[in-house]
Amino acid sequence: MSMPPPARTRIKICGLTREADVLAAVSAGVDAIGFVLYAASPRAVTPARAAALAHLLPPFVTPVLLFVNHSIEDSTAALALVPGALAQFHGDETAAHCIAVARQSGRPFIRAARIDESAQGDGLDLLEYAQHYSEAQALLLDAHVAGYGGGGKVFNWSLLPPNVDAHLVLSGGLDSANVGDGIALLRPRCRTLAIDVSSGVEADAPGGGTLKGIKDPAKIHQFVAAVRAADHHLAGKH
Predict the structure, then answer these.
(1) Are 76 and 105 in contact (CB under 8 A)?
(2) Which of 21, 142, 196, 216 is an active site residue?
(3) What CATH number is attached to the domain comprising 93?
(4) Spatial separation of the C-alpha atoms in residues 66 and 15, rounded to whole Å
(5) How far apart are the first and last CA of the chain?
(6) Structural domain tally of the chain?
(7) What is the pLDDT of residues 88-128, one digit of tens each?
């Protein structure tokens, strides 16, 4: 009796700024490409630059625009420049704000949920949050850090509820070494699981750390391979 095909974890590479990195991510087989429009981020691009980079994407690879406290008008205008793009909100946007952008632009949205381990429990009632942002296509889970946007930090995944009636996107400090553990732990806890990575596939800086916004093609391919290996490993357990 043949085994069913393994569940496929969707992969997004975020914080791209260069044509070569977009093409490398597409070559590796990712599902989505993220462009940061938050001007204070070292990975920031303008809406026009995001549109030019998104023009390189083939069919069925989704561009995603990351907003942080942009106005409804600015968010809608940016989305209009990038056909097929999703909105991803990382600031203090209310559900009403997100829904207004989605309805005016005709695009789905993803809402970031920042997990603060210094507060009681996980610092966030994720079940209530999911209900509050029920019109979101997915909730993106990231570590709570100072400021806004991703901080490249891992939070304690085991703090999350055992069952969340939502599509989840795991983010924060992921790389090819730990992404398999995240998939194994969180996939049973939600409707579907996707993965979002940025600093974990960036080029190494000479003095340590990474070159923010500059991706390493080898790391991208290693990351995608690690996700696919985790998918096959989980499929073998069923």
Answers:
(1) yes
(2) 142
(3) 3.20.20.70
(4) 9
(5) 13
(6) 1
(7) 999 999 999 999 999 999 999 999 998 876 644 444 688 99
